[in-house]
Design goal:
There is one protein chain. The chain is an alpha/beta fold. The protein folds into two domains: 159 residues, Rossmann fold (3-Layer(aba) Sandwich), CATH 3.40.50; 144 residues, Rossmann fold. The chain contains eleven helices and 14 strands. Strand 1 and strand 2 form a beta hairpin. It starts with 12 loop residues before the first helix and ends in a 28-residue tail after the last strand.
Length: 341
């Protein structure tokens, strides 16, 4: 598979993944579905710009880190790209960790601002006074303690217009922390061009993501795998993404598939195995994707026999952003890549 990425000297990922969709006429296109809420690309752009302006009002500058401790909702792309458009660097944090882990992540990244879901305040409170660099905490979706700002306060009266920071393809864009299997977790620094590369190789040439697709990832956005599945793959082509903030159980996943009608579903082997033990339909899904661990051949066989939908198994890592496309792959042959039939 030959591929050469050519980007201009001045390049910002938020402009590419959000503003470009507006320029290309997709402002009214549905970008995000979450529970009973929805957001168009124009809505994502407005929210992104207001959050970017709100962060700017807090004194956030280019290359400052902004930590995101958020569940998968429509707020995530607005906060993620709002920081990037400002030239700041979002740090995507795992919502399933312990207080001491957040103490490490926030001090190690030296994040000046934390945008977090109210549901996680209980695990954050014990370490709040031990954070050496954090200056502001913004709380989303719930009660806000007196020492924090609400998201509404952050964006109140903020403009829906934001000048794009003069970043380049090789500038820092976002951080993801590794699992820590070889010691403490390491912060993998990804550049402005990394998401584009993944979207144009694995997203376009292997998965064939299209504008009319609806993507749904049970793997959460704080994972490298989930961030591609649920954010920059669909946004790269103006497709729609479905979010589920709850824990991915077979029942909740099947319910989300029924409600939002995704055409591409991203899971992990353990979830695929448990879904085979539950009742549910994949009506409308054209392709399933697996990563995170090796997909057992028996699960693949039973899945295809029951649902008549292929699972594309891939290998990736936090450090390379997503799944590495096989060198011998040719576009359109996804049924053969990584399968263990």
């Amino acid at each position: 598979m030959g591929f050469e990425l050519e980007l201009p000297a001045h390049f910002n990922a938020a402009d590419y993944f959000v503003d470009r969709n507006i320029r290309e006429g997709r402002g009214d296109k549905l970008a995000v579905l979450c529970e009973d809420r929805s957001l168009t690309y124009a809505g994502v752009q407005a929210g992104m710009n207001r959050i970017g302006n709100g962060l700017k009002g807090l004194g956030v500058r280019m290359e400052d880190r902004v930590a995101l401790l958020l569940l998968d909702t429509e707020v995530y792309p607005q906060a993620f790209f709002g920081a990037i458009k400002l030239g700041a660097v979002p740090v995507c944090l795992n919502t399933l960790m312990r207080s001491k882990d957040y103490l490490y992540f926030l001090n190690d990244s030296r994040a000046r601002v934390l945008i977090m879901d109210a549901a996680l305040l209980e695990v954050f409170e014990p370490i709040r006074k031990d954070l050496r660099f954090l200056e502001h905490t913004v709380v989303v979706r719930g009660s806000v303690p007196e020492w924090a700002l609400s998201l509404d306060q952050l964006i109140e009266d903020r403009s829906t217009q934001l000048e794009t920071a003069p970043t380049g393809p090789d500038d820092s864009c976002f951080w993801l922390y590794s699992s820590g299997s070889t010691g403490v977790p390491k912060g993998a620094v990804h550049l402005q061009h990394d998401m584009v590369y993944c979207a144009q190789t694995y997203g376009a040439q292997v998965l064939g993501v299209r504008e009319d697709d609806v993507c749904f990832s049970a793997a959460k956005l704080f994972f490298a795998y989930g961030l591609g599945n649920g954010l920059y793959f669909p946004f790269s082509v103006g497709a729609t993404v479905a979010y589920m903030p709850d824990r991915p159980t077979p029942a909740s996943v099947y319910d989300t598939i029924r409600r939002h009608g995704p055409t591409i579903f991203f899971g992990v082997p353990t979830l695929y195995g448990s879904m085979l033990q539950a009742e549910g339909s994949l009506q409308g899904v054209r392709l399933c994707v697996s990563a995170g661990e090796a997909l057992p051949a028996d699960i693949l066989r039973r899945w295809v026999e029951r649902h008549h939908v292929q699972i594309l198994d891939g290998i990736g890592s936090t450090e390379i952003s997503h799944i590495q496309p096989p060198r011998q792959h040719q576009a359109g042959q996804f049924g053969q890549v990584g399968s263990r039939l």
